[in-house]
Write a structure and sequence with these properties.
Layout (H helix, E strand, L loop, with lengths): L1 H10 L3 H41 L2 E5 L2 H4 L12 H9 L4 E16 L2 E10 L1 H7 L4 E5 L9 E5 H7 L6 E7 L5 E13 L3 H6 E5 H8 L6 E6 L5 H15 L3 E5 H4 L1 H39 L1 H9 L4 H37 L1 E3 L9 E3 L5 H27 L3 H6 L3
Parallel strand pairs: 3-8, 5-7
Antiparallel strand pairs: 1-9, 1-10, 2-3, 2-6, 2-9, 4-7, 5-8, 6-7, 11-12
Helix pairs in contact: 1-13, 2-11, 2-13, 2-14, 11-14, 13-14
Length: about 400
């Protein structure tokens, strides 16, 4: 009890100074909780925007496509894609599977011709998957549509087209000949990626089949029920395909989302720098409080030593004071962090489009358990290490010299 009651009483002996120290520690914890929750929410929204507008969680190709498909995409069309799709849909963590075929070509209207990347899609499956695929004008594709396209905002601006306008798309068939179709622009979309919006148009699968002279698919796009299970489902599917002798290969959204990966590394490095800044501020605050306490209590320390209290016990009293300050500051910081995070998330923070994007978004502050643990550990750890030198200094005072301060 000696090591708890005496340090606790000493902490509240100077309530003003203790309050300032606790406020500094708690503010550091709140800053960490806020910054960590904001960065986590930003990364989650960025990740989901790529998954639910372009990539899905997994993409399944014919074996060899990832290495040679860029040069000869139609040489690696997915064989037996209906059987592969049945295997994927049987997995309990899979939500949606939809086929795609990609092709390149020119789209012309009047005297303007622009190159594009086309996607032949199943409108029904894509509408369920692309929950972050925003239609800005007109309407999205439907299953009954034929010879209609939707295109990205940048591509539509390059052609100066709007919904209802007609255009001609030209592409190579799977046999290498050239084919063209008259199409009607049904809608204009935008996603989180400006490069995607500047080059991509989508057509119904039946229209792509007439343009390319094939009804086969190039890839199966898989949307899972939970993003955190991406790697586990990928391993399961690879084992299933191997056991059934399917010559396939799988790519996950992590392999494709370079912008997300770079943003995550960049923001995590910033968070690391913020941790060091808060650690230093907390250490300086507790050191200042501890030094003041030692100076004010030199006479008291002399009395304790004169009554037989060992140097170790004197040092332990000051260390316990530092630990209690860290614990109280960490708890107050965690509670205040929850309040600030919920208040800010209630209103949201309007954010401009990030680099490489044209889509504005609303940021929130997530309550991330990992960040709370880090903030609490920094509060307690910084208090412990910053009290070591002042407590050692107090324990080394000579008894006679310390007692003269009471005279």
């Amino acid at each position: 009890m000696f090591y708890w009651t005496l340090p606790l009483r000493n902490i509240f002996r100077r309530p003003g100074r203790t309050s300032v120290t606790l406020a500094a520690i708690a503010f550091g914890s709140v800053a960490l909780v806020f910054a960590g929750g904001f960065i986590d929410d930003s990364l989650v929204q960025l990740r989901e925007s790529y998954i639910r507008s372009q990539f899905g969680h997994l993409q399944i190709f014919q074996k060899g496509y990832l290495r040679y498909g860029a040069a000869r995409p139609f040489a690696y069309l997915l064989k037996n894609h209906n059987r592969v799709m049945d295997v994927v849909l049987a997995h309990p963590d899979v939500d949606i599977v939809t086929p795609r075929i990609e092709f390149a070509g020119l789209i012309s209207r009047g005297e303007t011709s622009v190159s594009f990347v086309g996607q032949g899609v199943n409108p029904r499956g894509e509408s369920k998957m692309n929950t972050m695929f925003r239609i800005e004008a007109g309407k999205n594709l439907q299953a009954k549509d034929k010879f209609q396209v939707v295109m990205g905002r940048g591509l539509a601006a390059s052609l100066a087209v709007k919904p209802g306008d007609t255009a001609v798309i030209v592409s190579n068939t799977v046999r290498g000949s050239v084919n063209a179709l008259d199409v009607t622009v049904k809608g204009v979309f935008s996603t989180s990626a400006k490069a995607f919006d500047d080059h991509v148009l989508r057509v119904p699968f039946s229209t792509a089949a007439k343009l390319l002279y094939t009804g086969e698919v190039q890839s199966l796009i898989v949307l899972l029920k939970d993003t955190s299970k991406t790697r586990a489902v990928r391993r399961d599917l690879e084992k299933l395909f191997k056991s059934r002798g399917y010559a396939t290969e799988i790519q996950s959204w992590e392999d494709l989302a370079d912008v997300y990966n770079n943003s995550r590394d960049f923001l995590n490095r910033q968070m690391g720098i913020l941790r060091w800044i808060i650690l230093i501020v907390s250490i300086l605050s507790v050191i200042n409080t501890a030094n003041m306490a030692v100076l004010e209590r030199i006479g008291e320390i002399g009395t304790m030593r004169a009554m037989g209290t060992s140097r170790w016990k004197v040092m332990a009293v000051f260390i316990m004071e530092g630990l209690l300050l860290g614990l109280l500051g960490g708890v107050l910081g965690a509670l205040a962090g929850v309040g600030v995070a919920r208040l800010v998330s209630h209103f949201g923070i309007p954010m401009p489009p990030p680099p490489g994007s044209t889509m504005e978004w609303v940021a929130h502050v997530r309550l991330v358990p990992r960040v709370f643990v880090q903030a609490f550990a920094i509060a307690v750890g910084s208090s412990f290490f910053s009290i070591l030198y002042p407590s050692w200094k107090a324990s080394r005072l000579e008894i006679a010299e310390a007692l003269r301060h009471q005279v």
